[in-house]
Amino acid sequence: MSETTRKKRAIVLFNLGGPDSPEAVEPFLFNLFNDPAIISLPNPFRFLLAKLISRRRAPIAREIYDHIGGKSPLLELTREQADALQAALNSEDDGYENRCFIAMRYWKPFADESAQAVKAWGADEQILLPLYPQFSTTTSGSSVKDWKRACHKVGLTAPIKTACCYPTNPGFVEASAEMIREGYDRALAKTVELGIDKPRVLFSAHGVPKAVITKRGDPYQSQIEKTSAAVVEKMAIEGLDWNVCYQSRVGPMEWIGPSTEHEIERAGREGKAIVVVPIAFVTEHSETLVELDIEYGELAHEKQVPVYERVRTVCSHPKFINGLVSVVKQTQHELDKKGSDDYTVESRGWWCPDEHSCANAKQPGLKSAGA
Ligand SMILES: C=CC1=C(C)c2cc3[nH]c(cc4nc(cc5[nH]c(cc1n2)c(C)c5CCC(=O)O)C(CCC(=O)O)=C4C)c(C)c3C=C
Ligand SMILES: [Fe+2]
Ligand SMILES: [Fe+2]
């Protein structure tokens, strides 16, 4: 099909965004805490609280980013994913000319700038693709809402369909299982040398306050557990010892658990080797390179965990990119069948356009709830 007859399809990739310099740390944190999906207070209270928390947290966060050159690698790695996905989508002649755009929620490129770019390109349709396999109102929900606000602002009217979540997408699960298997084998070799028990796999996801699950009915925690169970099944290691835990707590509220720190301390007490897997992130950034590699690595050493192995995120693993291709195709199919996103669902406490998947996933955690 010729360029002129092909429909222009914009794929908009969402992620959190990270500071691109030490000076950007405080305004980045302000944007995060000023998001009603993170702190659900009316203004001016949210604005004032966001100012206060971001000012207090900035020195701690700057220290975190100092370990990785003062800035986040998230945008660079997301660009690599966008390029790989665009190439994979355009390798087939299925009637679409695809272009991937990136919109970050709390740092550049913001939704306004990217929506303007999608409009200038002349997109006929938009597929929104959060780079969060599991749906949370604090991440995907917030980004989608912000994107629709930006579309309205810049006058971008091309029909939209959102890929809500893909916690058990085969490409994502296979890429994860393959990478974990390599990490597991490395750890296993060390346990054989030390003459100790086989390693335990710890699926560590970014936590959220408990109220996000219990009050908003966010499906995030149960989708984390679904991903972990699917990956374990794919790994097919008989009698594998595994658990789900949650990292990155901030603030005084009660967060979902068990915490990753708690699980590391338990492994130390039990003399267990651990393989730590960041299961809610698909790229490297401060939460993996600093929190998991440095802070929790030191904690593991201090608590005498005999082997601490961290598995890298899937990034641009070809199987993960193929998984994203299938998510785009499925979402396109939904757009053709049902039309653009149903805006009425946004009035619910939790926001997710994928009624079926999320309605089924509303039960709070299975494995971690009992731990
Ligand atoms: C699944 C992904 C994420 C969820 C859910 C999430 C919820 C959430 N986060 C905070 C507070 C902070 N998060 C910070 C960094 C950060 N968070 C995510 C992802 C999720 N957050 C990522 C990918 C990153 C790293 C960004 C980068 O380095 O590029 C930070 C900043 C770092 C720090 O100061 O520790 C804060 C703060 C809350 C409060 C929350 C849910 C309510
Ligand atoms: Fe976060
Ligand atoms: Fe969903």
TrEMBL record:
<keyword id="KW-0627">Porphyrin biosynthesis</keyword>
<comment type="similarity">
    <text>Belongs to the ferrochelatase family.</text>
</comment>
<keyword id="KW-0963">Cytoplasm</keyword>
<feature type="binding site">
    <location>
        <position position="287"/>
    </location>
    <ligand>
        <name>Fe(2+)</name>
    </ligand>
</feature>
<dbReference type="GO" id="GO:0004325">
    <property type="term" value="F:ferrochelatase activity"/>
</dbReference>
<keyword id="KW-0350">Heme biosynthesis</keyword>
<dbReference type="InterPro" id="IPR001015">
    <property type="entry name" value="Ferrochelatase"/>
</dbReference>
<dbReference type="GO" id="GO:0006783">
    <property type="term" value="P:heme biosynthetic process"/>
</dbReference>
<dbReference type="Pfam" id="PF00762">
    <property type="entry name" value="Ferrochelatase"/>
</dbReference>
<dbReference type="InterPro" id="IPR019772">
    <property type="entry name" value="Ferrochelatase_AS"/>
</dbReference>
<dbReference type="InterPro" id="IPR033644">
    <property type="entry name" value="Ferrochelatase_C"/>
</dbReference>
<protein>
    <recommendedName>
        <fullName>Ferrochelatase</fullName>
        <ecNumber>4.98.1.1</ecNumber>
    </recommendedName>
</protein>
<comment type="function">
    <text>Catalyzes the ferrous insertion into protoporphyrin IX.</text>
</comment>
<dbReference type="InterPro" id="IPR033659">
    <property type="entry name" value="Ferrochelatase_N"/>
</dbReference>
<keyword id="KW-0456">Lyase</keyword>
<keyword id="KW-0408">Iron</keyword>
<comment type="pathway">
    <text>Porphyrin-containing compound metabolism; protoheme biosynthesis; protoheme from protoporphyrin-IX: step 1/1.</text>
</comment>
<dbReference type="GO" id="GO:0046872">
    <property type="term" value="F:metal ion binding"/>
</dbReference>
<keyword id="KW-0479">Metal-binding</keyword>
<feature type="binding site">
    <location>
        <position position="206"/>
    </location>
    <ligand>
        <name>Fe(2+)</name>
    </ligand>
</feature>
<dbReference type="GO" id="GO:0005737">
    <property type="term" value="C:cytoplasm"/>
</dbReference>
